[in-house]
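Data deposition worksheet. Section B asks for the primary sequence of the deposited chain exactly as it was used as input, without tags or linkers unless they were present during the calculation. Section C holds the resulting structure in token form. Section D is free text for depositor observations; keep each observation to a single sentence. Incomplete worksheets are returned to the depositor.
Section A, Depositor: J.P.
Section B:
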Amino acid sequence: MKNLFKLMIILLIVSSVFATNSRIVTLGGRTAIVRDDDRNINLFPQRINDGSLIRFEGINTGAPNFLFTFGENSKWGFYGGNNQVNDFLNIYKGIGENSAIKLGLAMGIESSSDEDSNEEPSPGNISTLEEMKSRNIGVDFQYGSDFGDTEFSTSIGFINGPNLINNLGQNINTYSLENTFGTVTTTNEGNASGTLLAFDLQIRKPANIMFFENLYSNTFAGFLKTNSHYEPNNVVVEHESYSDFFAISEIILFNEVGINDSMFTIYYGTGFNGAFQSIKDIDTVGHTEDTFSGFGVGGPTIMIGTEIDVKYFVFRFGVRKNINIFDFTKEISTSDFGTEDDIRTIKNSDILSNGNYVFSSGLGFSYKKFTVNLQLNNAFWVTGPQMILSGTGGTLGASADVIYEF
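Section C:
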């Protein structure tokens, strides 16, 4: 029931914090440590005041995301693309030289009706009327401002939409089916919905901690509530409710070092994070109640990226590795069938588990105010000649972006 709606959470988090930009991916994967990249507008909307540009991100997909910023004394921006569903309004607005807001509004309303009738006298009047309706409403607001050398932004998001009715296999808000056979009428009815409320706070500032000169912190918290109900012929066969509270906090320490007039630039950092989640899933018909709680501490996350600028071309290489320090989860399943409750408890803990190294590489081309960034397919370094000469082994690039500054 909850999987489809939880996908909306993942998209919300990924679109605002983690990178899909081809340049960022090849420099360690985090926008926060590459301060001169235009994708920092996603983190801190006041960066819209730094210049005017047109950016198409993921042009290889055929449905790229875009950003258009313009204006002299007063900056404006518009964004959209494949990640924004049911777009109604997506804007940036600069406020003075150091502040800006971002406002996104998504709406979608769908309904369908299918009526089939047969009025022949024998064996009797037969008719069916099936109706399905769904709606999507999403609002996100972000405010960002600079306080001296400190960059600050905060955002709040709200999403309300359909959810999955398991017995129908439909992701909708309301459903009704009316069958008439002669003088006998039967009805099937169902309803489902999902709501998410999320809050985000981001800060980036100079900080002398160990041998790092900069600090970025991000705190994200949200609450998700979903439900589904279905009853054919006044018999309830599905009635579920799901709630999920989660919070994620992260700190990244990083440096940027330019060598030989920035012909060779190194971006490197390390991050630590903590997370908490509490879930309750109640199935009234199945007489079950599942609860889940967990917390964890991760780090250090190691991220390193290098850029080599040779006139019109920029070569990029990056590596990233995650290390999990500790996590603990507890899951309780309760069933009240019979005279006594059946309770099952599962506990898991994990200490010092290492993730894999993730390597990436990319190529940039710049001419005057025009830039193309390409994330290379890692297989290129093994089967490059075959990919170029014979077209086998996959495509040369994994993703591509185009930027024009004016």
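Section D:
Residues 3-16 form the longest helix (14 residues).
The first strand starts at residue 53 and ends at 57.
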